[in-house]
Amino acid sequence: KAGVTQTPRYLIKTRGQQVTLSCSPISGHRSVSWYQQTPGQGLQFLFEYFSETQRNKGNFPGRFSGRQFSNSRSEMNVSTLELGDSALYLCASSLSLAGGGSYEQYFGPGTRLTVT
Amino acid sequence: KNEVEQSPQNLTAQEGEFITINCSYSVGISALHWLQQHPGGGIVSLFMLSSGKKKHGRLIATINIQEKHSSLHITASHPRDSAVYICAVRRSQGNLIFGKGTKLSVKP
Q1: CB-based burial of residue B72 (10 Å sphere; 0-12 exposed, 13-18 middle, 19+ buried)?
Q2: Residue A101 has pLDDT above 70, yes or no
């Protein structure tokens, strides 16, 4: 079974631009989560989608948004990029949403975004 | 104070040594995850546990829900175990929060 894929793997953008990152989950997985990793803050939760609905959101400004399509693929968008948005953006997929329990998360390789 | 604290931050060991990484948390959780991240960024989930103990090969993870504490043990460590180990807890309301990670270096 193919793993989680993310495109593009590397991206260089200029301050003020916007960017869209894509994540394709493992076949059959309906939940996709997005995370930002920086040297200073470590890993931080961005948002989680299940069945095309955002179920949880982290403490990030409104410039960060996402969506999930009917085939469970997900995109995240960052508008008006700032230097501090330079980070590794990871997505992870799981079979289902963690309600009363928790499900194994499978991580993609990440997209490394550099903002200049 | 971070909701998930890991110790130590950095750890250097000789090949063959027994290694312990600790994780303490302060929130209600439904599960705790141990993750491994190699240079280059890829993250692999090692364990997901909500009680007791799990073992996979040379790796053992334990959790004490009452004390809000988990440990990851590596027996007979090997240079290929060199990586960053990250503890993450799934809040009762759903999202993951992460520790800062423990950078492990195993010398031959």
Answers
A1: buried
A2: no
Contact B84, B102 (CB under 8 A): yes
Tell which of A41, A53, A105 to mutate to test the B interface (max B CBs under 10 Å).
A105
For chain A, what is the HEC assignment?
A: CCCCEEECCEEEECCCCCEEEEEECCCCCCEEEEEEEECCCEEEEEEEEECCEEEEECCCCCCEEEEECCCCCEEEEECCCCHHHCEEEEEEEECCCCCCCCCCCEECCCEEEEEC
d(CA B69, CA B73): 13
Which of B9, B32, B43 is the best mutation test for A, with the most CBs of A within 10 A? B43
**Lookup: tokens for B105:** 């270096």
- What's residue A106's pLDDT? 92
Q: How far apart are CA A112 and CA B82, in angstroms?
A: 22
Neighbours of A4 (CB within 10 A): 20
pLDDT tens per residue, range B13-67:
999 999 999 999 998 898 999 999 998 778 999 999 999 999 999 999 999 999 9
CB–CB contact B42 A110 (8 Å): yes
